[in-house]
Amino acid sequence: MNQRRVVFVVFEGFQSLDLTGPYEVFQQAGRLAGGYACEIVAPSPGLVHAGSGLPVHAGHGIATLSPEGVDTLVVAGGTGVYEARNDPGLTAWVAAAGAGARRVTSVCSGAFLLAAAGLLDGRRVTTHWARVDQLAREHPGVTVDGDPIFVRDGRVWTSAGVTAGMDLALALVEDDLGGDVALEVARRLVMYLRRPGSQSQFSVALWSAQPSTDPVRAAVSAIHADPGARHDIQELAAHAGLSPRHLQRRFTAELGVPPGSYVERVRVEAARRALAESDDPVEVIARRCGFGTAETLRRTFHRRVGVAPSDYRDRFHSIAKGGDL
């Protein structure tokens, strides 16, 4: 089997997990099925320090590594990307490597370096949620979607922050070697296979505060264990061991949203996953996720997500097939 060259671009101040997470995914896949040769390139060869101070050895510098023959280009992000994108030698190398590569990818704020190299013009991309507005403002020719954990637009794949790079790498492995290999890699790395690219960066852990007491924690756990269950205030109060009125007050104080709003958002997230990962009819998803009817799901989904469930599914399937939006 011909080995695919996966070249990781790093620089002073890169985010270490943007490199090591995807690197481990490709290395594990290579051990299982062969086919990958991973290399690290930096402006200069030798030690490169992550923003955390972690030293990493770059085997190549841009002056000595040809940009030709790269199969998959992976550009890391990190606080150092803003200085790195102003390095004309580095951006020129990335532009040349990206022009000939089969796939061009970035993790987190690595999208800024790809954009500086002119590789994102006219593309739909994502990046870390905290850098979405900046990327859109500085590169108006790029369509920036800050919601998904990764986006595929043709041969350009971009991911959200940090650990989302591993989800992206698993998707790349699946694209190359099939679902069975990707599943085994995920098992070996104790990962969930795999968060769909459509999944929001703003998962429940991010859009809500965390419960600080056991009764509220019990109610929250019940909601997540089965989003489609009844979950009215009486049911949740029974899980919490509190009166409905007391739970309503404590839940809102600890999480910043009332129980009904929290349940609705968890159900919408469950519906998003179901729409992305299955071909089940909307009516079936509505019942399973606790909405009762397809019309209730449509109204709630449009209010929360901004599109109809059917449009969301069509959009996801187009992205999964590499369609340009």
Question: How would you portray this structure in words?
Answer:
The chain folds into two domains: 4-188, Class I glutamine amidotransferase (GATase) domain (Rossmann fold); 204-320, Homeodomain-like (Arc Repressor Mutant, subunit A, Orthogonal Bundle). The chain contains 15 helices and eleven strands. The protein has helices at residues 16-33, 81-84, 88-100, 111-116, 132-138, 164-177, 179-188, 204-207, 214-225, 233-240, 244-255, 259-277, 282-288, 294-305, 309-320, and strands at 4-9, 36-42, 46-49, 55-58, 60-61, 72-75, 103-106, 124-125, 143-144, 150-153, 156-159.
CATH architectural type of the largest domain: 3-Layer(aba) Sandwich
Oligomeric state, counting identical vs distinct chains: single chain
In N-to-C order, the SSE pattern is EHEEEEEHHEHEHEEEHHHHHHHHHH
Number of domains: 2
> Rough shape?
elongated
* Backbone CA Rg: 22 Å
- CATH class membership of the largest domain: Alpha Beta
The rounded distance between the terminal residues' Cα atoms is 34 Å
